[in-house]
Amino acid sequence: MRTQVAIIGAGPAGMLLAHLLAAEGVESIVLEIRSQAYVAGRIRAGILEQSTVDLLRSAGLGERLDREAFEHRGIYLQWPDERHHLDFVELTGRSVFVYGQTQVQKDLVAAREAAGQEVHYEISDTVLHDLESDEPSVTFTDSSGVAQRVTASVVVGCDGSFGPSRAALPDGVRRSWEKTYPHSWLGILADVAPSTDELIYAWHPDGFALHSMRSSTVSRLYLQVPNGTDAQTWSDDRIWESLATRLGHGEGGWKLTPGPITEKSVLPMRSFVQTPMRHGRLFLAGDSAHIVPPTGAKGLNLAVADVGLLAPALAALLLGGDSRLADAYSETALRRVWRCTHFSWWMTTMLHATGDPFDEQLQLSQLRWVTSSEAGATGLAENYAGLPIGF
Ligand code: FAD
Ligand code: DHB
After folding, report:
1. If you take atom 3 of ligand 2, which residue's CA is the nearest one?
2. Any idea what the Cα angle at residue 75 is, between residues 69 and 81, rounded to 5°?
3. One of 12, 19, 72, 99 is an active-site residue; which one?
4. d(CA 139, CA 68)
5. 294: annotated active-site residue
6. Do residues 200 and 168 make contact, with C-beta atoms less than 8 angstroms apart?
7. pLDDT at 205 over 90
8. Tens digit of pLDDT for each residue in 151-203?
9. Which of 39, 49, 101 has most ligand 1 atoms within 8 Å of its beta carbon, as the pocket-test mutant?
10. Is the predicted pLDDT of residue 390 greater than 80, yes or no?
């Protein structure tokens, strides 16, 4: 097979890149190790930044989003006996949107299917070749067991945190930074109306809790748990009791309404950045180059920002022979990546219990500052609601 851009991974980064490239007149083939149903069903991110929504709308992907997403003006930040609202619209002029990654993925798959996009699902043995030449290629075994090769002008690794692309950069070229955290999140989906109009991020001595949502009838909630926790050891009753305690059920008359839990899983947390995001004819986008802990809701938004930069850069390179944007891609993308890496680390550090009484006092001091000082609140709001793509 031959194409202009071989894209490895059909998650949000890979499918959105294929979509944006097609709009520029650039052909691509997408290769995915999992089935279409598996990729579509993964419960992951839930919050879209204003710039992500703007990009999806301008790419013709905003129709269902505009009908179904909830636009939120801000978030609540709280600790025992205190709850404060940060109004991002007042502070920065930008809002955020509740629209699950599963919905974004569904819209992308529908749009690419309608356009006849070539996507090979359930492949195996993905190997990248000749990345420093003008004819790089990817070999794989297709879903019927036949060996295949896609030869392209460019290969883009959108293969997430476990894919082979990031390791395809030579040892002497790649550099990485990593931090693992001593806690994980236990996440649930529940068939119950959210008990809040906007997200609640709660500091509590027992551990962090977050009340998010997916729709007017489905709630998404998270609890800080120790690493290595088995989700099945947390009964539904224990989960709702811990959420009620940490989210402040009964404080100021607020109530958390429990409901049937339909999904339960544990997510480990880590920060990871690999540079450069381009080597020869290989480009990296999304989780293949960087992972953030989920506290700042940045993972999906960063993946979208990467491909928002990469698509016009590849179009200029492949259609006009102009390499300036492609040459600047890694440096430009990494400015935002490091900003979001810092913000996600900072939110995580401010909100998760460590068991250290000194940390606890610093966290509470920081929370009081960001909820009472306009300067503190604006810093959080600007980062959470998101910087413009290309920042
Ligand atoms: P992915 O969505 O991981 O897509 C990569 C694709 O590449 C996958 O479909 C994978 O199957 C495929 N692939 C891998 N190896 C190969 C191969 N060898 N050959 C071909 N294809 C391959 N972010 C938030 O902002 N908020 C959250 O609440 C949140 N929750 C998360 C929960 C979980 C369990 C995980 C794992 C992530 C979560 N994230 C969250 C992060 C967010 O989902 C990711 O940042 C986002 O999915 C990145 O998109 P991506 O396309 O770069 O990578
Ligand atoms: C969700 C996940 C997050 O990591 C976050 O910070 C906010 C919301 C969610 O899944 O809804």
Report:
1. 297
2. 140
3. 72
4. 40
5. yes
6. no
7. yes
8. 999 999 999 999 999 999 999 999 999 999 999 999 999 999 999 999 999 99
9. 101
10. no
Q: Does residue 87 carry a pLDDT above 70?
A: yes
Q: Is 367 exposed, middle or buried (0-12, 13-18, 19+ CB in 10 A)?
A: buried
Distance 103 CA to ligand 1 centre (A): 14
Tokens of 325: 């944007």
Closest ligand 1 atom, CA of 299? 45
| Residue 384 designated active-site | yes
In three-state form (DSSP H/G/I as H, E/B as E, the rest C), the secondary structure along 283-336 is EECHHHCEECCHHHCCHHHHHHHHHHHHHHHHHHHHHHCCCHHHHHHHHHHHHH
280: left (phi over 0), alpha (psi -120 to 50) or beta: left
At residue 43 the predicted structure's pLDDT band, cuts being 50, 70 and 90, is confident
Q: Determine the atom of ligand 1 nearest the C-alpha atom of 285.
A: 52
What is the Cα Rg of the chain in Å?
21
Q: Which residues contact 157 (CB under 8 A, 6 or more apart)?
A: 8, 9, 128, 163, 164, 165, 166, 168, 282, 283, 284, 285, 288, 289
pLDDT digits (tens, 9 = 90+) for 11-22: 999 999 999 999
Ligand closest to Cα of 306 equals 1
| Residue 387 predicted with pLDDT over 90 | no
